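Q: What structure does this chain adopt?
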Amino acid sequence: MNTTELQKHDPFAAVKFAEYRNLMFGRFLFIMGLRMMGTLVGWWVYELTSAPFAIGLIGLSEVIPAVSLALYAGHVIDQSEKRKLLLKGASLYLVCALLLFSLSTGSVSSKLSNHSIAFCIYCIIFCTGIIRSFTGPVFNVIIGSIVPRNALQNATTWSQGTWLSASVFGHALGGIFIGTFGIRNTLAIIAVLVFSGFCFLYQLKAKPTLNEPGEKKTWDSVKEGIRFVLKTKEVLGALTLDLFAVLFGGAVAMIPVYAKDILKIGAEGFGWLNAASDIGSIIIIISLTFFPLKRKQGKILLYAVGGFGICIITFALSKSFLLSFAALMVSGIVDGISVVVRGTILQLNTPENMRGRVMSVNSMFINSSNELGQFESGLAAKLMGVIPSVVFGGSMTLFVVIATWFKAPKLRKMEY
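A:
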């Protein structure tokens, strides 16, 4: 067996690179802080307003700038030094965490009404959407410049595992810290986590662009990235499936309502429900690290998304904390499979000089599905009621999978 084959089958191939480890440590702390922030903001806004629709507006506040700027951000990333761009984004996230902290202090909250505080939160989240459009794709772009091509699948799996592990701790600890220390002290912890992540990311080496500055006009550069995605059918199919499945299956947005009013499990239970899907994802990510998918990845992707829809329907109808937790955990397992398949397709099929633009298109799809899904869930809950809206979302996810099975045969037959 040659060196390439050894690396391909080595579950620790990527983490043997010191710079990759710094990236993963930095990403873990950074994402844990951000996921804790997301958990806290959802709980905080619902506590301020007692309105499920208000939770949906959080997603809308972030998705508008994130999606609007995604294509331009891809051009900027491909034209920029990646390390500097990532550090700028982390610094600005820290500023946003500190602004939220200031809103939680007695001196500010005593002068503002609950709805005014909620409005200020929306404005800060709008700013994080702008930052996210530039920062989010850079993590994936840098991976390709740190590890060799024959370790990319392994690096992608570790990266997703890092992100999901951070999500678990962020969600779970967010709920626990809110219940134990309160919103203000939890925001202080979030700021410390983001700063700690910045310190690890600071140790990365400079990642200069492979494109000459000003080589192409902005719009021409953006169109080139879009054309690549459109002509690479496997990439387009996987992204489209994720977009519509998560758009309709965004039950996570309603977890604060389930925790507080339906299951009545409080802030700590809310944190664990929020973390359940990520725990499931970690389980499957660890399994895929040692036993990667070798055949029929397209069919497995469709089965996984279909299973996700079934889990959402189960969660919607559950009146038991344990059943709800189990449904969300299994949804995380099947979602983890789709994340790894999609991420591997992107890394293996994207040229180095186009990674920023292609990852930004990917980010735009992800932002659209997650945040628009959050808004859709809030709107549907307002129109249909919470439980019927989540059942509807899971059912629509199943419909999307069935339609994709027949309408996208290339995706169904895809292997890598």
